[in-house]
């Protein structure tokens, strides 16, 4: 009988370790990304987990034929690490031998080893398992990893507990038609639109909670900004004095995330030429004031007094950046008609809510606000809206047995990533997008 003692050893080194082995022979594994044949030698680019490593093949040193190497083969190279001052790494990797672990059955239908994958968005997504191997395409999702790591680090350091709420639910958090119905052992259930109810419940347990998880919206939008499944960054915090505490917390979180990316994701940021925003202070403007400001500055007629049009979001961001230098802007006090039943109405004007959206580079990336914590007030509002209280018994249970003043937000991870990277379509920042026409791959 064999036992596992937990000691993890590998015979291969990582690119990050090569500097320590100058003058030595090493083994390194990866996929052959590209072969550039020159006169008398060749550059062999090896795609490893995070970096593309340039190796040098020469007939004098290599104990194998260059013909043995095929792009996208998985290999283990034995190589000599040779000091080279002219190289940006300070060394060169001279190939000595190869162990071929696998070869592709056929050539890739898409050229992935150029700087950019030169194809349509449709093809980019249809061949996603292959196109994600491109150096720049995969860098998108390393940066997205960095965003989530930075968010987790900030929230955990500020007293938030991470939770994992159900994605099959009895009733929708926001109701309406944009909810996926599923069969559940003879009963009707739904895919969660949001962890809203559960994160509110958990405020009564931990005071501060967060979750980074998928949510589902059965919206029939086919636009560059909508997905039917996306990753929502949600947090909820109790014992707040006003909804501005939530906005302050998000400002601090975004500042922390950008600092985290600078510290740990410089290679990907450089590869994609990312300009990170400066997050010092984020201006806040009331909804109606923002609408009127855009209308005045751009001589536009206000057609919708209950919500923003996408073009208005872009124009407002342009205007705020010109006036303040900020690429972010909070829009506050949205009309009660456009906010969910749990949104707290303003004490000074019940027609508006203690809520906000955060816009970034022309796009809404966050919705948040203060919630109703009084059982009496919540029931009264639901009855006023004609809602069936029996569908919300478990939700109202927390109100009935006491809740502190609380509030929170939901941030769309893919939207934030796409705007951070200067992309115009949120699908480019989604590993395997789900929209009205796409269920594969």
Can you walk through the features of this model?
The chain is an alpha+beta fold and 441 residues long. The chain has helices spanning 121-126, 128-131, 135-157, 196-206, 244-264, 266-271, 287-298, 310-324, 375-384, 393-400, 413-420, and strands at 25-37, 41-47, 52-58, 74-83, 91-102, 161-162, 168-169, 181-184, 187-191, 208-216, 229-238, 284-286, 328-332, 355-360, 363-370, 406-412. An eight-stranded mixed beta sheet has the order 6-10-11-16-15-14-13-12, with helices on both faces. Strands 1-2-3-5-4 form a five-stranded mixed β-barrel. Strands 7-9-8 form a three-stranded antiparallel beta sheet, with no helix packed on it. Helix 3 (135-157) crosses helix 5, helix 7 crosses helix 8 (310-324) and helix 9 runs antiparallel to helix 10. It starts with 24 loop residues before the first strand and ends in a 21-residue tail after the last helix.
Can I get a quick summary?
The chain is 28% helix and 25% strand. It is α+β, with helices and mostly antiparallel strands and 441 residues long.
Order of helices and strands: EEEEEHHHEEEEHEEHHEHHEEEHHEH
Residue share in β-strands: 15-25%
Q: In angstroms, what is the radius of gyration? A: 26 Å
**Shape label:** elongated
Structural class: alpha+beta
Sheet bearing the most strands, described? Answer: 8 strands, mixed
Query: Helical content, roughly?
Result: 25-40%
Biggest sheet, spatial arrangement of strands: 6-10-11-16-15-14-13-12
Task: Specify the number of helices.
Answer: 11
The parts where pLDDT drops under 50 for at least 5 residues are none
Count of beta strands: 16
**Termini Cα gap:** 41 Å
Q: What is the mean predicted local confidence, pLDDT?
A: 94
Oligomer: single chain
């Amino acid at each position: 009988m064999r036992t596992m003692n937990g000691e993890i050893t590998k015979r291969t080194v990582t690119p990050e370790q090569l500097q320590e082995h100058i003058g030595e022979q090493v083994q390194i594994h990866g996929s052959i990304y590209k072969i550039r044949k020159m006169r008398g030698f060749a550059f062999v680019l090896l795609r490893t987990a995070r970096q593309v490593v340039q190796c040098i093949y020469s007939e004098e040193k290599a104990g194998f034929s260059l013909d043995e190497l095929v792009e996208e083969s998985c290999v283990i190279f034995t190589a000599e690490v040779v000091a080279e001052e002219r190289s940006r790494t300070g060394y060169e990797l001279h190939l000595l031998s190869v162990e071929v672990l696998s070869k592709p059955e056929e050539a890739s239908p898409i050229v992935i080893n150029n700087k950019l994958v030169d194809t349509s968005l449709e093809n980019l997504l249809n061949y996603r398992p292959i196109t994600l191997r491109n150096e720049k395409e995969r860098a998108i999702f390393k940066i997205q990893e960095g965003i989530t790591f930075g968010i987790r680090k900030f929230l955990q350091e500020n007293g938030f507990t991470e939770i994992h709420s159900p994605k099959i639910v009895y009733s929708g958090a926001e109701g309406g038609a944009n909810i996926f119905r599923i069969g559940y052992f003879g009963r009707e259930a739904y895919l969660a639109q949001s962890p809203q109810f559960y994160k509110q419940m958990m405020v009564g347990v931990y005071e501060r909670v967060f979750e980074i998880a998928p949510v589902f919206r059965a919206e029939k939008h086919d636009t560059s900004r909508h997905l039917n499944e996306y990753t929502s960054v949600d947090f909820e915090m109790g014992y707040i004095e006003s909804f501005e505490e939530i906005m302050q917390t998000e400002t601090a979180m975004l500042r922390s995330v950008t600092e985290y990316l600078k510290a740990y994701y410089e290679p990907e940021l450089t590869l994609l030429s990312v300009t990170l925003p400066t997050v010092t202070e984020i201006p806040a403007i009331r909804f109606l004031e923002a609408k009127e400001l855009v209308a005045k500055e751009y001589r536009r007629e206000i057609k919708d007094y209950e919500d923003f049009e996408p073009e208005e979001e872009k124009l407002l961001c342009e205007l705020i950046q010109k006036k303040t230098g900020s690429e972010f802007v909070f829009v506050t006090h949205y009309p009660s008609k456009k906010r969910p039943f749990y949104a707290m109405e303003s004490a000074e004007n019940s027609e508006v809510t203690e809520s906000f959206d955060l816009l970034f580079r022309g796009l809404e990336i966050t919705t948040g606000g203060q919630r109703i914590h009084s059982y009496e007030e919540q029931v009264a509002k639901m009855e006023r809206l004609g809602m069936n209280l029996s569908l919300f018994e478990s939700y109202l249970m927390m109100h009935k047995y006491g809740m502190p003043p609380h509030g929170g937000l939901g941030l769309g991870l893919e939207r934030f990533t796409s705007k951070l990277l200067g992309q115009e379509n949120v699908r480019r920042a989604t590993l395997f997008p789900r929209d009205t026409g796409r269920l594969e791959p």
